[in-house]
């Protein structure tokens, strides 16, 4: 079994995301974003992943107001549903598998919509933001967090540099950091008909559990476009030759981490995001 296959053995991508990335990276930011949720508001978590934001809203506001979550990936929705049930929140949160540009809700259905680190991945960002505005009530609130350029995230900057060094600079910037320009973000939101009320660069400390989680998780998503527009993955997770690629990446990654690699093996560093709040 290859290192990638062993890392994923018996677990879905959604399960690995929840166990190894959500607690130290996405949960702290969810707590920050949900401070913007009006009490008693009907809230929508767009590109919800495993439901980190939706569950944070439910914990913060016990009023029983409607909470919904959508994600294009059905395995993420399945994991989000399981986690909500495990916390006793199944009757508070309704999840649906749906792309961000085709939300399964009526017009004016929600008081607030949240997008945590999803906007940069949407194939049609203007359409997705237009959908968010459609399902928000007049005067409803959009709250979105988008990573800044990778220099605001030292651990990921080390990873991006390792990828460029070992696999080619054409694979960078990595997708999570591809919408790091604040002016571009503001323009996207305003062009969708929102009135931007604030757009601030903020930074929180984040933690990854070990040196290998990021390389072994992310390498499965690295790909180059072919002439016909399809993507060819950099590695086959089941090919024994992938072990050498992984080992080289981890070596190059570790060499760039400095003090962010702690004695206990965890990776601790700030991650910066632009947080935008806007009115429909």
What would your notes on this structure say?
The chain is 37% helix and 24% strand. The protein has a single domain (3-279), classed as Vaccinia Virus protein VP39 (Rossmann fold). The protein contains nine helices and nine strands. Strand 2, helix 4 (74-86) and strand 3 (93-97) form a beta-alpha-beta unit. The longest helix has 21 residues, at 13-33. With 280 residues, it is an alpha/beta fold. The strands form two sheets. A seven-stranded mixed β-sheet has the order 3-2-1-4-5-9-6. Strands 7-8 form a two-stranded antiparallel ribbon. The termini are far apart. InterPro entries: Methyltransf_11, SAM-dependent_MTases_sf. GO terms for molecular function: S-adenosylmethionine-dependent methyltransferase activity. It holds the Pfam family Methyltransf_11.
Number of strands: 9
CATH architecture group name: 3-Layer(aba) Sandwich
What is the terminal-to-terminal distance? 51 Å
Q: Roughly what is the average pLDDT, rounded to an integer?
A: 96
Number of domains: 1
What's the gist of this structure?
The protein is an alpha/beta fold and 280 residues long.
Write the layout of secondary structure elements.
Blueprint: H1 3-8, H2 13-33, E1 43-46, H3 52-60, E2 67-71, H4 74-86, E3 93-97, E4 110-116, H5 125-135, E5 136-147, H6 154-167, H7 182-191, E6 195-208, H8 213-218, E7 223-225, E8 231-233, H9 242-255, E9 267-279
Which structural traits does this protein have?
280 residues, alpha/beta, Rossmann fold, seven-stranded mixed beta sheet, 37% helix, globular
């Amino acid at each position: 079994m290859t290192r990638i296959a062993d890392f994923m053995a018996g677990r879905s991508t959604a399960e690995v995301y929840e166990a190894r990335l959500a607690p130290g990276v996405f949960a702290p930011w969810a707590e920050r974003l949900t401070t913007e949720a009006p009490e008693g508001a009907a809230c929508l978590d767009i590109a919800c992943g495993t439901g980190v934001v939706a569950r944070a809203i439910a914990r913060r506001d016990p009023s029983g107001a409607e909470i919904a979550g959508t994600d294009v990936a059905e395995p993420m929705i399945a994991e989000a549903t399981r986690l909500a049930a495990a916390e006793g929140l199944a009757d508070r949160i309704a999840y649906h598998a749906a792309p961000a540009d085709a939300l399964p809700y009526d017009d004016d259905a929600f008081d607030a919509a949240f997008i945590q680190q999803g906007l940069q991945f949407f194939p049609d960002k203007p359409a997705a933001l237009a959908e968010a505005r459609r399902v928000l009530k007049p005067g409803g609130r959009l709250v979105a967090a988008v990573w800044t350029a990778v220099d605001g995230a030292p651990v990921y900057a080390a990873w991006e540099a390792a990828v460029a060094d070992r696999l080619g600079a054409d694979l960078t910037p990595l997708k999570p950091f591809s919408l790091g320009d604040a002016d571009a973000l503001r323009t996207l939101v305003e062009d969708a008909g929102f009135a931007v009320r604030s757009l601030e660069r903020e930074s929180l400390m984040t933690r990854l559990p070990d040196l290998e989680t990021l390389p072994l998780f992310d390498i499965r998503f690295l790909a180059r476009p072919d002439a016909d527009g399809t993507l060819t993955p950099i590695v086959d997770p089941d090919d024994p030759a992938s072990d050498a690629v992984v080992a080289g990446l981890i070596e190059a990654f570790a060499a760039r981490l400095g003090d962010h690699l702690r004695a206990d093996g965890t990776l601790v560093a700030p991650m910066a995001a632009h947080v935008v709040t806007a009115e429909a």
